[in-house]
Design goal:
Helices cover 77% and strands 0% of the residues. By secondary structure, it is mainly alpha-helical. Helix 6 packs antiparallel against helix 8 (185-218). The longest helix is centred in the C-terminal third of the chain and has 50 residues, at 223-272. The protein is globular. The two termini are 34 Å apart.
């Protein structure tokens, strides 16, 4: 459950940061030294958090590709049941969603707003987007696996090429899921909808940013670039509001998906007399938590340094 915890921490931190950004101008800065200082700490904390979150997302995408490819290509299905595959899809998307703030709301990482960004800030913003792009490209395979799992041919049925009949599957389900709250059809539809919509939203954002960088680089003086820049002032706040609404929605849906499937898995484990190993804290869980220790160190340093 470490991915869910870290996502909640990030969205809460960004919410506070956005609120402080909105009131951090002119006289308000002079009248609110405590809030200005807190804004400074959170800005650097968000920056450090993103550096750690990108590293975590990269490792999660690699692990997801390895596990899902073994399942998809029939190498091995050990430890990868249907629910585990769905949890893997959800975690892959969940760790990617917070990184979108780097792409479209970089001002949250710069503390008090300024009209001009320094060359160092611009270079670091481009580097972060490059790292995000790597994570996004890696996430395309889990997305492909998700689409095949949702809409591909089922291996259960009485037709040719299917490995288990409907009657046999009903017997297995009855034995494993008796006295267990099964995942309903409506819940599955909600999982599928938010999972696919979230992945498509991330892809649209990434592709649009790549196109914008290409237009700026190759067609700096084109009418399209000039039109976008002229309308950026009016469009920018609407994009910010859209992000602050959609990203937490997608994140909460993935957290709920993981929680719901984990409850189902625990019930099946009790029925079959097996221990649920996912509840054990092992090397992976501990390592993923310690990756974020620099965030606390950075916030403590910025607070004491003033």
């Amino acid at each position: 459950m470490t991915a869910e915890l870290k996502s909640v921490m990030l969205y809460g931190d960004l919410g506070i940061q956005t609120y402080l950004e909105s009131g951090n101008t002119g006289a308000k800065e002079r009248q609110r030294p405590f809030l200005n200082r807190l804004n400074h700490v959170l800005a650097h904390g968000c920056s450090s958090f993103y550096d750690s979150a990108i590293l975590l997302s990269f490792s999660i995408q690699i692990a997801s590709i390895v596990m899902l490819s073994r399942l998809d290509f029939g190498v091995s299905a050990s430890g990868m049941g249907d629910s585990t595959a769905k949890i893997t899809w959800a975690v892959s998307l969940l760790t990617l969603l917070p990184l979108l703030y780097v792409t479209f709301l970089p001002q949250l990482l710069h503390g008090p707003r300024s009209e001009q960004q320094s060359p160092t800030q611009i270079a670091k913003q481009k580097l972060r987007f490059g790292l995000f792009s790597v994570c996004w490209l890696l996430s395309l395979y889990p997305f492909y696996s998700k689409m095949v799992g949702y809409f591909g041919p089922s291996l259960i049925g009485n037709g040719e090429g299917q490995v288990i009949s409907d009657d046999e599957w009903d017997v297995i389900q009855a034995a494993c899921t008796s006295n267990v709250e099964d995942v309903s059809k409506r819940e599955l539809i909600a999982m599928h909808f938010f999972g696919v919509a979230g992945s498509l939203f991330v892809s649209i954002c990434a592709i649009s940013k790549v196109i914008w960088f290409g237009l700026q680089r190759q067609h700096e003086n084109s009418k399209a670039v000039q039109w976008i820049r002229r309308h950026h002032i009016s469009i920018g706040p609407k994009i910010t509001v859209l992000f602050l609404m959609l990203l937490p929605t997608f994140a909460i849906s993935q957290i709920w998906t993981i929680w719901r499937l984990r409850r189902f898995q625990e019930g099946v484990s009790r029925n079959t007399g097996n221990e649920s190993l996912d509840n054990l804290w092992t090397f992976g869980q501990i390592a993923s938590i310690t990756v974020f220790v620099p965030v606390l160190v950075e916030c403590a340093f910025r607070w004491t340094d003033g």
